[in-house]
Amino acid sequence: MFLNPWSLALTLCSLVVLVLGAVAAKTAVRVLRFWEPGSDSNRQIRLENEIWLSSTLVAYGLGFQIVTLILFVLAADQFCQVIVGAMCATGALLANPYGMPALLVKLSGVFFYGFWILLHQLDIRSEQYPLVRIKYLALLLLLPLLILDASLQTLYIAGIKPDIITSCCAVVFGESTGTTTNLIAGYSQQGPLVAFVGSIAGLLLAGWGLLRRWRTWLAGLYAAGWLWFFGLSLVVITTVISSYVYAMPYHKCPFCILKPEYHYFGFALYGALIPAAFFGASVAIAGLVRGKAGLGGVVDGYQRLAVKISLVLLVIFSGLSFYHYLKYLISGGEG
Amino acid sequence: MARYNLEKQLNILEYALSSLWRRRMKSLSVLLVFGAVIFLLASFQMVTQALSDKARQVLAHTPEITLQKMSAGRQEGIPLAYRDKLAGIFGIRRVVPRIWGYYFDEVRLANYTVMGMAVDEMPEGARLDTALARGTMPGPAEQGRAVIGSSITNALDLAGRDTFSLFRPDLSLKSFVVIGEFSRDTDILTNDLIVMNLADARDLFGIPGGLVSDLCVYVANPTEIETIAKKISDALPSVRVLTRPQIQKTYQAVFGWRSGFGSICLLSALAAFVILAWDKASGLSPEERREIAILKVLGWETRDILAVRFWESVIVSGLACIIGMTAAYVHVVYGAASLFRPVLMGWSVLKPDLHLLPRLAGGDILLILAFTVIPYLAATVIPAWRSATVPADSALGG
User: Fold this and answer.
1) What pLDDT, on a 0 to 100 scale, did the predictor assign at position B344?
2) Which of A141, A166, A191 delimits the end of a domain?
3) In chain A, which among 119-138 make CB contacts under 8 A with chain B?
4) Same domain for A193 and A102?
5) Which of A60, A220, A307, B232 has the fewest Cβ atoms surrounding its Cβ within 10 A?
6) Which residues of B touch A81 (CB under 8 A)?
7) Contact residues on chain B for A84, CB-CB shorter than 8 A
8) CB < 8 Å to A5, chain B
């Protein structure tokens, strides 16, 4: 179903991002082949200028990718109007096997471009540009991800046929076990919820410990903890938090909270969670390049900042997550 | 640190504004063309969205299931006796017959929609009077009474009288008394409509007794629509069973298709604009080269100049979006989307006055931005980098 404004906009954005990525990759190849830090030849000066181009292109690519991520979910929400049986983005994304993978690749893309920009920002803080080769190798590795993203999205859009029967989120995330379409089946609410609260407490403690005295092992644990917490939060948002937002026990959907009916609550929730997980995990990424020439002080400063930002966002995210639950309890609901 | 960065960005923003103002003719030309492109895309998007909203509202009150008899792939009259075959299906609230068709007025060269309804049998029939500006709906016993839409009044020139006549198929005349007129609020449905009772419609069109155009099936529980539709099509294999959700989805798909088709046509305008923006951004005048060289001598870095160019693009796109979307809203709401009406509306001679009210959700704005601003930013980034890496000595040397 390409003849639809949403499909066209997504395809257009993907094309733009691919072109930007290709131009940046051209620079990357040249840098990997000809980079000579000590030289002052014409080529080296040209390459030093081109570094700016490639980093700007990746920064734009990141911005566009965030826009397409939102656009993709909203588009799925529009597509559900023409797909028989689908009532929200969940049904539309499950209409063919490429929907969910496309979404996951887009989401991970946002993290990877962010990590690349982080490497770049650390690199230009040092006069020797110590990360140039790593950075451009990473850039070349990002290119397959971009292509995968664009192809999955194209396959998904091409595969949407208005007469395919799919399930609505009440079935997919619902309580009824035994159906094969159930995404998150058989989990009791208690287990993930206890783990969720425990992880929040653990992350807060670890972050506080890190800010008091920096320990490398704890920093690694903190970053790994964030990756775990990110996955767990997505599950908990789906199974527990969302139904309190909808005020309906059987409506469990991670996408409907993005709708205007629920005051765009999901944007605040994901808008706190995704950057928090990014900064939390980036502590480890920055730590990996700490040993390079001239980066020690810069990395230390960044890591402390990243821990602070992730802790603040964690507090905001926890507040948002429990807001509807507490409101429900205070207004007389049974826990 | 954060405060320093913020101050720096604010200063760069100020410089970008002054730089745009210094080259105001160039900036203004890009701004106007960009605004026009956004105007076209946004008004197309708003019209289709308002129309599909309208269709959804209108279809909310249609019967849950409509039955039409098909023969050789074409629709023909459905026997009233089919109602008895549906009697055994649980969950059906009521089955109401309906006769409808088009009447071509050879004098005025216009098509009227004629509808014969059994108002007393419809579940909400008593409330139909609320759609009238004056009068009542014709009852089953009243012969030769009709309720008409607003442009029929004008077409038949009924200002001072309340009787009119239409030709039967054998060219004999059948006369009607106007006992009511639809309110202007329902124009999109009732503008070219003449409503009468079943017997009059059958007489006017010469349809044999025992046949009607279609049967409307009202279902009590909306979740049972699909099951009941399946049972009906098992019981009556020659009948086309249309359910309301099906019709709604078809409308959404058609509007999505039309809007996508329109967007593809407008993509050429977008491409032309992107080329213009690229060209405007790449053509550096000697003064601009000198300006950048001076900035570099003063200690500006490549990244600061890139930031200036970025802010310039953001300001131009932001202003163009505000201008384009406001113009599009005015065009759709107050201008009744006059530019795109022929594409999106039907071909009837009696067109209703359109009062469209587009609903601008955050998602639609994002869609329009993705269509226009992202290609523009992408088109200006490489020229911006070229201008930012002008070597200081070469520009000042001459």
Assistant:
1) 66
2) A166
3) 124
4) no
5) A220
6) 249, 252
7) 245, 249
8) 45, 48, 256, 259-260, 263, 367, 371
d(CA A110, CA A112): 6
User: H-helix or E-strand containing B188?
Assistant: helix B187-190
Confirm whether B118 is domain-assigned: yes
Residue B224 is assigned to a structural domain of this protein: no
Nearest CB neighbour to A8, from listed B245, B263, B378: B263
Contacts of A95 in chain B (CB under 8 A): none
- B295/B359 same-domain check: yes
- Position B322, amino acid: I
B372 in the same domain as B267 = yes
Residue B35 reports pLDDT greater than 90: yes
Q: Angle at Cα B292 formed by Cα B290 and Cα B296, nearest 5°?
A: 115
CA atoms within 13 A on the CB side of B216: 19
pLDDT-derived band at B352 (thresholds 50, 70, 90) equals low
What is the pTM for the complete model shown? Answer: 0.82
At residue A231, the 3 state secondary structure works out as: helix
Answer whether residue B100 shows pLDDT above 80.
Answer: yes
Q: What domain range includes position A241?
A: 170-335
B86-100, B259-273, B339-353: least confidently modelled range: B339-353
AA identity, residue B347: W
Question: Alpha carbon of B281 to those of A64, B25, B72, B319, B384: distances in Å?
Answer: 20, 13, 62, 17, 7
Range of the domain at B268: 2-58+251-397
The answer to whether residue B113 sits within a structural domain is yes
Residues A41 and A135 in one domain: yes
Which chain B residue shows the shortest CA-CA distance from A9? B371
Residue A86: the pLDDT is 73
**A245 Cα to chain B: minimum distance (Å):** 20
Number of domains in chain A: 2
- Domain check: are B151 and B214 in the same one? yes
Residue B231 maps to a domain: no
Residues A150, A183 within the same domain: no
In a shared domain, residues A247 and A305: yes
Predicted confidence (pLDDT) at residue B319 exceeds the cutoff of 90: yes
Q: Which residue of B has its CA nearest to A301?
A: B1
* Residues of A (274-313) whose Cβ lies below 8 Å from B: none
Tell whether A118 and A162 lie within a shared domain. Answer: yes
Stretch (H or E) spanning A113: helix A99-125
Question: Any CB–CB contact under 8 A between B230 and chain A?
Answer: no
Please tell me the distance from the alpha carbon of residue A257 to that of residue A177, in angstroms, as a whole number: 24
Last residue of a domain, one of A122, A144, A166: A166
Compute the nearest-CA separation of B227 from chain A (Å). 14
Contact B306 A56 (CB under 8 A): yes
- Closest CA of chain A from B386, distance in Å: 9
Helices A216-236 + A190-212 axis angle, to 10: 150
B109/B179 same-domain check = yes
How many residues in chain B? 398
Q: Does the distance separating the beta carbons of A5 and B45 come in below 8 Å?
A: yes
Q: Considering CB atoms only, which of B249, B363, B384 is closest to A82?
A: B249
| Chain A residue nearest residue B389, CA to CA | A49
Regarding whether A325 and A232 lie in a shared domain, the answer is yes
In the prediction, which pLDDT does B324 show?
94
Per-residue pLDDT tens over the stretch A46-63: 888 888 888 889 889 888
